[in-house]
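Exercise 7.
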Amino acid sequence: MNPVLAVRHQGTAGRLLVRRRPSAVGQAWMRYDDDCGLAEVELADLELVALMEG
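Solution. The predicted structure, written as tokens, is:
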């Protein structure tokens, strides 16, 4: 199984997509849990919540 890194961005829960390449250093892609939307966000704006088995 692949590990899942749960994060929170501006109060919204999601998952970090570590296999998707960001456009710049200091950014990462995430998928929001509520609407499954994708977004490239600043790593500094993320709160790490949990590391789980996926």
